[in-house]
Amino acid sequence: MSEPFRFQLQAKDGAARLGAITMPRGTIRTPAFMPVGTAATVKTLTMDQVRGTGADIILGNTYHLMLRPGAERVARLGGLHEFARWPHPILTDSGGFQVMSLATLRKLDEKGVTFRSHIDGAKYEMSPERSIEIQGLLDSDIQMQLDECVALPAAYAEVERAMELSLRWAERCRIAFGDQPGRAMFGIVQGGAEPALRERSALVLKAMDLKGYAVGGLAVGEPQQVMLDMLEVTCPLLPAEKPRYLMGVGTPDDILKSVARGIDMFDCVMPTRAGRHGLAFTRRGRVNLRNARHADDHRPLDEESDCPAARDYSRAYLHHLIRAQESLGAMLLSWNNIAYYQNLMQGIRDAIGSGTFVSHAEKISASWAQGDI
Ligand SMILES: CNc1nc2cc(C(=O)NN)ccc2[nH]1
């Protein structure tokens, strides 16, 4: 087999990059959007629906899966791909972010984090080594280092402490991961909104010669411009020939502006979470199906879409389902929104390939500037 993990840069348009990551379970076209499959499911959708939208890779949350059904149980059942019937690449996060945002009674020290499950209060310890072990039990293709992500705004000293700890944990994860052909471990650049700390984190991680690099600790309460400024500091310091993944981002506008600054991979709960709450993303902007003005509208969300949820159902029907809290409403809007995001990414890839990314991004952003339609 040729290199089991290969990132090919195919074109550039300014700092925007068109590429492809080739792994044993398949190829990931970049810039890529990874639907979030938190508890081994992209909420309300079958994996066939997810694949049908054009997704090449999904994300799994280590924190949720270690608590329920348990990493050892998933391993006994053949790993996450077999368990969830998704045979394509899976990226798992390390659990650090969810521990800090969901778990209770958390204690963090050099060794790792100890916490109580938000489900049943059971006590857990998560070290960098255990996080990598869990991701291996899940049979994850791209594994993330354990890090500490601090909410912003935060004092410089606090951001520095968390960033330095994350660097030490990156080295421990690198050693624990070892050499697993066909799989990859990504480092995560931390450093809050501090350029000097972002630079140090990027340069130390670069020296570890990892297969890919995430930019973490953003979209945690800071203004969009601060996030973008941190990308302008960080991306140029990362190796050009490795993929760059912005964690937890974002809206279509966030994605366009981050691709323009050199990001290749994204994940965000927005399309599925918004869908469950009645919000549809369309080429002409957002449609809030809870709004009564859709009650008699026989038009579909987008008659030209290749997604049945967008093309085959009236807004009146979708409005009815959402108002009636019928689960079909959540499913159809999640399906529409994931399809919208995959079409957004395909349009971005095409634009970079034809050198028209700037005008394409302006066109997409303009379609959103009008607010809800
Ligand atoms: C929604 N915002 C958001 N920011 C994130 C940051 C991280 C991170 O730094 N993990 N190590 C993970 C998920 C995130 N989601």
Summary tags:
8-stranded parallel sheet, 373 residues, 16 strands, binds 2-(methylamino)-1H-benzimidazole-5-carbohydrazide, alpha/beta, 3-stranded antiparallel sheet
Would you mind describing this structure in some detail?
Helix 6 packs across helix 7 (156-177), helix 7 packs parallel to helix 8 (195-207) and helix 11 runs antiparallel to helix 14 (327-353). The protein has helices at 47-52, 62-67, 71-76, 80-84, 96-101, 128-137, 156-177, 195-207, 224-234, 252-259, 270-276, 308-311, 315-323, 327-353, 357-369, and strands spanning 6-13, 16-23, 26-30, 32-35, 58-61, 90-93, 104-109, 112-116, 123-126, 142-144, 184-189, 212-215, 244-246, 265-268, 279-282, 285-288. It is α/β, with parallel strands linked by helices and 373 residues long. The longest helix has 27 residues, at 327-353. Bound molecules: 2-(methylamino)-1H-benzimidazole-5-carbohydrazide (6H9).
In short:
The protein is of the alpha/beta class.
Topology at a glance:
Elements: E1 6-13, E2 16-23, E3 26-30, E4 32-35, H1 47-52, E5 58-61, H2 62-67, H3 71-76, H4 80-84, E6 90-93, H5 96-101, E7 104-109, E8 112-116, E9 123-126, H6 128-137, E10 142-144, H7 156-177, E11 184-189, H8 195-207, E12 212-215, H9 224-234, E13 244-246, H10 252-259, E14 265-268, H11 270-276, E15 279-282, E16 285-288, H12 308-311, H13 315-323, H14 327-353, H15 357-369
Parallel strand pairs: 4-14, 5-6, 6-10, 10-11, 11-12, 12-13, 13-14
Antiparallel strand pairs: 1-2, 2-3, 7-8, 8-9, 15-16
Bound molecules: 2-(methylamino)-1H-benzimidazole-5-carbohydrazide.
2-(methylamino)-1H-benzimidazole-5-carbohydrazide binds next to helix 5.
